[in-house]
Amino acid sequence: MLKVKSVLVSQPKPESDKSPYFELADEYKVDIDFRPFIHVEGVPSKEFRLQRINLLDFNAVIFTSRNAVDHYFRAAEEARITIPDDMKYFCISESTAFYLQKYIVYRKRKIFYGQQTFADLITVIKKHKDCNFILPCTDILRPNIPTLLEKNGINFKPATLYRTVCSDLSDLKNVNYDVLVFFSPSGIKSLYQNFPDFKQNKTRIAVFGPTTAKAAEEAGLNIDIAAPQPESPSMTRALELYIKKVNKKK
Questions:
Q1: What pLDDT, on a 0 to 100 scale, did the predictor assign at position 249?
Q2: In 16-117, which ranges are continuous DSSP H helix?
Q3: pLDDT at position 124
């Protein structure tokens, strides 16, 4: 198997210098670059109005990401709406909850959060079934989210406030990497939207999650590295095991 000398991760560069990607690059002398293959754009206010949703009809909000937080408050500002002080916020994680400080006085609000997954958050939401929830979301909403809400009898309304779109990667046309790393079906879509004639040849493909793997296979790509696995719960660990094997590092 060919050695790995270069890796392109289809995500933004980590903000922390202590990222395991940097440790991996340093230990195995591999060049690791970062480039988002997709990005988020807000739904224009005119388009949002067509959904006929009034943000003030709800007394609780479910946030599954920082993007959801940003675009919920953007939509409120564009509609010239002041969010009531007694609004309840349900966040998928503590870090997402803390992010609310960008828009509200945190200690004076009713804020609840889960551990990291939506299944965790549902246990918290179920204690507030009397609330009328709004779910700010992207145009590609994971089906397990509305399914869990409906299964537990939660009164909610999804509001599409932002969408995932393919980034312009034209400057990478003549750049080749030994490994391309993907984290979502949208990343695979972006690859072929930017490079319709892409041929895998000797490029290794790394994928995270079953839906990404399925999208890669449907696109005709051979998957060389997959996570999560029992021995590699993270993408960096999966990359490390593969690179260690093909680069013959003892």
A1: 56
A2: 20-28, 45-49, 66-78, 94-99
A3: 94
Query: Judging by DSSP bridges, how do beta strands 133-138 and 60-63 pair with one another?
Result: parallel
Q: How long, in residues, is the chain? A: 250
CA distance 193 to 10: 14
| Residue that terminates a domain, selected from 147, 164, 181 | 164
Q: Is 153 left (phi over 0), alpha (psi -120 to 50) or beta?
A: left
User: Within this chain, do residues 99 and 160 fall inside the same structural domain, yes or no?
Assistant: yes
Domain count, the chain: 2
Indicate yes or no: pTM above 0.85: no
Q: Which domain-ending residue is among 164, 195, 228?
A: 164
For 19, what's the count of Cα atoms within 13 Å in the CB-facing half-sphere? 14
pLDDT of residue 133: 98
Mean pLDDT by 10 residues, the chain (250 residues): 94 90 95 96 94 96 96 96 94 93 87 89 94 94 91 96 95 93 95 95 95 96 95 95 85
d(CA 80, CA 83): 10
- The DSSP code for 237 is H
Domain, as residue range, for 231? 6-37+168-246
User: Any long-range contacts for 80-86 (C-beta under 8 Å, 24+ apart)?
Assistant: 81/55, 81/56, 83/55, 84/56, 84/59, 85/109, 86/59, 86/110
